[in-house]
Amino acid sequence: MGAGFVKRERTRKLVLWPSRLHADIHLSAEYILDVIGAGATATSEQDWHSTWVRSSEVKEVRAELDKIHTEGRKRPAVQAEFHSKFATKWLYQFWELFVRDARVHWRNPSYLMAKLALNAAGGLFIGFTFWKSNDSQQGTQNKLFVCIFHFSILSDSY
């Protein structure tokens, strides 16, 4: 519908664009932008809203829109069914996020190597600091502290 209007207006205005007569397909978008005032010149010679309102095609478009509205009102409302809170299953979402995160890490090897070195050095440091802890109350607290300390380093590595 709108294409017919544009073609008619284009043939009327072809006097302004004689060099574009043979380049119909390739420069159509550029022509339309220039004509409506959004091109390089940023000026328009006519009010396109009033041109559209005065055209014969506007009646056809309004009639078709009215037809679509009346046909749509005759149909019953669409009932939506919600089977779950989320669009997909939790396992599928987890897998997609895991793959995306793995891809991000794979594309940044310097980050991966730095975190691997941090965890290896931290593990060795913590391990040898509390190596051969006795099985007393203090030794058990030290072993628990090792776990907490190591997890605090691991949490920073992500």
Q: What do you see in this structure?
A:
- This protein is mostly helical.
- The chain folds into 2 domains: 2-74, no CATH class; 90-156, no CATH class.
- It is built from 7 helices and no strands.
- The protein has helices at 2-13, 28-36, 48-54, 57-74, 90-106, 109-129, 137-156.
- α6 runs antiparallel to α7.
- The protein is elongated.
- 1% of the residues are buried.
Features:
158 residues, mainly alpha, 2 domains, 7 helices, 66% helix
Taken from the alpha-carbon principal axes, the silhouette is elongated
Helix content: 55-70%
Main sheet: strands, sense, barrel:
none
Rounded average pLDDT: 78
Rounded to an integer, what's the Rg over CA atoms? 35 Å
Q: How large is the count of helical segments? A: 7
The end-to-end span amounts to: 56 Å
State the low-pLDDT regions, or none.
none
SS-based class:
mainly alpha
Query: How much beta, percentage-wise?
Result: under 5%
Total domain units: 2
Number of strands: 0
Brief digest:
The chain is mainly α and 158 residues long. 66% of the residues lie in helices and 0% in strands.
What's the topology here?
Elements: H1 2-13, H2 28-36, H3 48-54, H4 57-74, H5 90-106, H6 109-129, H7 137-156
Helix pairs in contact: 6-7
